[in-house]
Amino acid sequence: MYNRMVRVQFLKALSYRPYEEVESVNRTVVGGRQKRALVCGAGGFIGGHLVKKLKREGYWVRGVDIKAHEFCFSQADEFLILDLREPANCSRALQLSDGESFDEVYQLAADMGGMGFISVADCEVLRNNALISLHMTHASAEAGVPGYFFSSSVCVYRDMEANEGPLTEDDAVPAEPDKQ
Predict the structure, then answer these.
(1) Are 153 and 110 in contact (CB under 8 A)?
(2) Are 126 and 83 in contact (CB under 8 A)?
(3) Looking at residue 90, which CATH number applies to its domain?
(4) Taking the model in full, what pTM does it have?
């Protein structure tokens, strides 16, 4: 309950507005049509905010996740519930009715369940995230998507020592994803 309250307060602090109030700041157009983006992991906290940002910028957005967004309705133009560990679902996520491809894919989908889950299921998490990333990257390349963004997770950082200062991006090398 406390965690949910904190997230709701955070959303209010970001001036979260319901779908009806989202306005396009500008029309992002390519080849005479609105740009299209696929957000994988759109049911998550960051993915949900990315959908909102892309909508404000004028994109047509499809969100995909294994679950609906937990705290609000997705602002995506279309939202599909798909398990991206399956190659066929990655291809399905990329299919558009006009036969063209997405302009951009944002790959944020990941198997995350908090430290309690990750610490006891690291092999399962590694396998699931590898499958999602490999299948989505391959399907996007096959579909001819010109723009692809991959987001990793905090799990690539090394273990921190007691009283150590904040980590930087340089601290991700050497990555030790199995030492969580």
Answers:
(1) yes
(2) no
(3) 3.40.50.720
(4) 0.74
